[in-house]
Design a protein that fits this description.
Blueprint: E1 7-9, E2 15-17, E3 33-36, E4 41-43, E5 52-57, H1 61-75, E6 81-86, H2 90-100, E7 107-111, H3 116-121, E8 128-132, E9 138-141, H4 142-145, H5 153-164, E10 187-189, E11 195-198, E12 201-205, E13 209-210, E14 216-225, E15 231-233, E16 235-238, E17 243-249, E18 252-254, E19 257-259, E20 264-272, E21 279-288, E22 294-305
Parallel strand pairs: 5-6, 6-7, 12-22, 13-22
Antiparallel strand pairs: 1-2, 3-4, 3-7, 5-8, 8-9, 10-14, 11-12, 14-20, 15-19, 16-21, 17-18, 17-20, 21-22
Helix pairs in contact: 1-5
């Protein structure tokens, strides 16, 4: 389901592509021509003849876990060509390779500092994985099939392997949810600069953050119950281990809040950032009314200024 198809223009004067549905399994994989951190470049045309795996990683724990599991599979004979679009610098990519034990002879890190590859595949939030067939067809998209299981390394990599060996048929699995189902849109955010809202999902785009000076990002989101009945926020569900959240109601930190009509509740979001990191980071927070159903979703994209 397409959440947004609009383009948000920030105070920076740059158009930012909104969160939307990416390429579909069974369709031609988006073409690309990207620089390799180790030198040279690679294009999607060069992949013809054999299947290839395209991962989107950053330095977060979830991406580390998926990469470690893929490295383990590489060690057991999984030799499929692996391309990695990494949100960060060459030095950060080298450290990521070392920390995750990826085989540098099999995994090629691509420079996507202009976000063009991410935009083509609509890959955020990471980790994300795509399998491109020998004829250029998209055999697998974790955005379509894995959904909320994208951060589960064993599930994600198992689905990738199934696609490589032909066990996963494109389009054979119904669209997996990329977030918890929204059962009410009465909890409406207070819109501020850098925000966009539609159908229960609020997007936020930060100003660039210099990670030489700041190693965390914090922001407050305020929601108003515009319905006629009380709404209960039972918990805040995050998408990444780098996130910490607080639920505040009437100025008090709460584990659970019953928000009466016309009243407001605040979500305090803090994201830990790796010192000196660059690129961008996208995280998600769900305001859940129970174990699964949501009253609203926050999708925050944090832009990391390039340290000099």
């Amino acid at each position: 389901m397409t959440l947004f198809a609009s383009v948000l223009v920030l105070a920076l004067g740059k158009p930012i592509a909104a969160f939307q549905q990416g390429p579909r399994e069974g369709a031609p994989a988006p073409s690309f021509n990207a620089s390799i951190f180790a030198g040279g470049s690679i294009s999607s045309k060069e992949l013809r003849g054999k299947p290839a795996v395209l991962f989107f990683f950053c330095s977060c724990d979830e991406c580390h876990q998926v990469a470690k599991e893929w490295a383990r599979l590489q060690g057991t004979g999984q030799s499929t060509k692996t391309l990695i679009s990494f949100s960060g610098t060459k030095q950060e990519a080298d450290l990521f390779t070392k920390e995750t034990s990826l085989n540098p002879g099999q995994a090629r890190f691509m420079d996507d500092s202009d976000n063009s590859l991410n935009d083509r595949y609509d890959a955020m939030p990471c980790p994300a994985a795509f399998v491109i067939g020998s004829d250029g067809t998209l055999l697998y998209s974790s955005k379509q099939t894995a959904g909320v299981n994208e951060t589960r390394a064993s599930v994600l990599t198992a689905q990738v392997v199934d696609a490589i060996v032909g066990k996963h048929k494109p389009g054979s699995v119904a669209l997996a949810p990329t977030h918890e189902p929204i059962t009410s849109t009465d909890l409406v955010p207070v819109i501020k600069p850098g925000m966009n809202y539609s159908s229960g999902v609020v997007e936020y785009f930060s100003d660039p953050i210099d990670t030489k000076k700041d190693v965390s990002f914090s922001h407050k989101f305020t929601f108003t119950n515009q319905g006629e009945k009380p709404l209960t926020v039972d918990r805040l569900l995050t998408s990444c281990g780098c996130e910490t959240t607080q639920l505040r109601y009437h100025g008090k930190v709460m584990k659970r809040a019953v928000v009466n009509p016309g009243e407001q509740v605040e979500v305090m979001l803090k994201v830990s950032l790796k010192p000196g990191s660059t690129g961008y980071k996208t995280v998600r927070v769900s305001l859940c009314r129970d174990e699964w159903n949501a009253l609203g979703i926050i999708v925050a994209t944090i832009y990391l200024g390039k340290p000099k």
